[in-house]
């Protein structure tokens, strides 16, 4: 990740924790024993470009530095249904707290990366590079990193992208890349 993105990503993580966990996951606190451990995996549900794995590690480190992260895929890898991006093991309460935050961030970033790869492939003409976060309407300034991932099908980092007006006219909606977790 580019160093200049780190403060924004950390701020995003804090906002997500505040919104999703608040003063605690009360259901987990009352139903899950403090010493219960588990394992989670991030399973891809459709073809695309995975993004947000580095951010996922930051979320997990922030919530519980004792969680064990086993990375299988890298940001920018092309994925297909059934691919596992990573495994995480640790305290079950911590895994449950991290789950929705990880999914929300990774779905958004992977959606942006997947759409960017599609645009690069199909819209080489009329492409410019003024602001990478405009690719998704500019509403999530913390996600330009997803636009700059190396896309394996092209063997290079995306440094150019379609003009937003062209993209909106031809592809009016950016679809979210779907992933989900399974606790084993």
The helix content, as a percent range, equals: 40-55%
Give start-end ranges of low-pLDDT stretches: 128-142, 150-184
Q: Given the structure, what is the number of helices?
A: 6
Q: Please outline the major beta sheet.
A: 4 strands, antiparallel
Mean pLDDT, all residues: 76
Element-by-element helix/strand order: HHEEHEEEHEHEEEHE
Form type: globular
Question: How many β strands by DSSP?
Answer: 10
Strand order of the largest sheet: 3-5-1-10
**Content of β-strand:** 15-25%
State the end-to-end CA separation: 30 Å
Radius of gyration, taken over Cα atoms and rounded to an integer in Å: 17 Å
Structural class: alpha+beta
Describe the structure.
The chain is an alpha+beta fold and 184 residues long. The protein contains 6 helices and 10 strands; from the N terminus they run H-H-E-E-H-E-E-E-H-E-H-E-E-E-H-E. The chain has helices spanning 6-20, 26-31, 53-63, 92-122, 144-147, 164-170; strands at residues 37-44, 48-49, 68-71, 78-79, 84-91, 127-128, 150-151, 156-157, 161-162, 179-183. The strands form 4 sheets. It has a 4-stranded antiparallel β-sheet with strand order 3-5-1-10, covered by helices on one side. Strand 7 and strand 8 form a beta hairpin. Helix 3 (53-63) runs antiparallel to helix 4. The longest helix is centred in the middle third of the chain and has 31 residues, at 92-122. It starts with 5 loop residues before the first helix and ends with a strand.
């Amino acid at each position: 990740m580019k160093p200049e993105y780190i403060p924004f990503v950390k701020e995003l993580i804090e906002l997500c924790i505040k919104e999703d966990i608040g003063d605690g996951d009360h259901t987990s606190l009352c139903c899950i024993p403090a010493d219960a451990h588990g394992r989670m995996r991030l399973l891809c549900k459709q073809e695309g470009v995975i993004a947000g794995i580095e951010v996922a590690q930051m979320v997990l480190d922030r919530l519980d530095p004792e969680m064990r992260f086993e990375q299988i895929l890298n940001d920018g890898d092309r994925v297909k249904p059934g691919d596992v991006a990573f495994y995480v093991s640790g305290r079950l309460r911590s895994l449950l707290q991290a789950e929705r935050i990880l999914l929300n961030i990774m779905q958004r970033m992977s959606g942006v990366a997947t759409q960017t790869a599609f645009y690069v492939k199909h819209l080489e003409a009329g492409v410019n590079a003024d602001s990478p976060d405009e690719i998704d309407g500019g509403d999530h300034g913390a996600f330009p990193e997803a636009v700059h991932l190396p896309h394996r099908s092209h063997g290079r980092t995306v440094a150019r992208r379609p003009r937003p007006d062209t993209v909106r006219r031809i592809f009016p909606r950016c679809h979210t890349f779907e992933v989900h977790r399974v606790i084993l």
